[in-house]
Structures are given as C-alpha cells and as structure tokens.
Amino acid sequence: MAEGQELIELKFRIYDGTDIAHSTYAPSMTVASLKQKIIAEWPQDKTVTPKSINDLKLIHAGKFLENKKSLADSTITFGDLPAGVITMHVVMQPAIAKNKTEKSKEDMQKLNSCRCVIL
User: Fold this and answer.
1) SS3 per residue for 72-92
2) Per residue in 33-42, pLDDT tens?
3) 44: Cβ–Cβ under 8 A, 6 or more apart, which residues?
4) What is the rounded CA–CA span in Å between residue 45 and residue 28?
5) How confident is the model at residue 1 (pLDDT cuts 50, 70, 90)?
6) Is the pLDDT of residue 5 over 80?
7) pLDDT one-digit tens code per residue, 78-103
C-alpha cells in the first residue's frame, strides 16, 4: 500500500440486517477481493450462504459495484460521514441450476397441447 493512502472503513449488511466484515480496506482493493472476504466471514448459522463471489452483489450509494474495479475506481465516498464507517449492502443472488429452470423444446411441445407455434 502506498504511503499516505487513506484507508476506508467498511461494514457489509446482509439480508437479515446483520453486519459482517467490519474492517478498514485499502482503496486499491478490488470488489472481487471484498466479496471473497465477505464469503469467508459469512455467518455459519444462516440458512442461505454464498458459494462464490458471483452469488453476491455489493451496493453502494444505489449502485452495484463491479468485481474488476477497485474501491477507488468505484468512487466510494468517504470522509463526509461523521462516524467514518461506510455500510454497503450485500445482495445474495445464487446461480440457478440450468437443469431446473430450462425446459427442452420437446418438454415445451408436450405442455403445449394446442400444437400452436410459440415464438
């Protein structure tokens, strides 16, 4: 980390209001690295847990943060807050297995009893 680089104090709020991974982070840290830390610190007593960084979305100031960007690139606003702690919201969006959601053309034809062509 470069000298004089100001650390950002963050905490992450999950779906039930629990705050996790409260710490200070370098502005050069990527969003993907943050997500890995969140997964590592995810409470084990929760019924829903993320399996990979793609299962999580981070929201700051109403915007989804991109995995490849750093905190500095994501224009994380800090310094204006009296407590100095920024709360980001974590949204779980687990990947859905293809075999459960996609139906083959044959299955769709079986369901379509009127033999109509559906575009």
Assistant:
1) CCCCCCCCCCCCCEEEEEEEE
2) 999 999 999 9
3) none
4) 32
5) very low
6) no
7) 555 555 788 999 999 866 655 544 55
Please tell me whether residue 23 adopts helix, strand or coil conformation: strand
| Collapsed DSSP state (helix, strand, coil) of residue 13 | strand
Closest CA to 53 of 91, 87, 85, 24: 91
**Is 64 buried (19+), middle (13-18) or exposed (0-12) by CB count in 10 A?**
exposed
Please provide the distance, in angstroms rounded to a whole number, between the alpha carbons at the two ends of the chain.
55
Please choose, from the candidates 24, 18, 8, 19, the residue with its C-alpha nearest in 3D space to the C-alpha of residue 74. 8
Q: Which of 52, 45, 82 is nearest to 67 (CA)?
A: 52
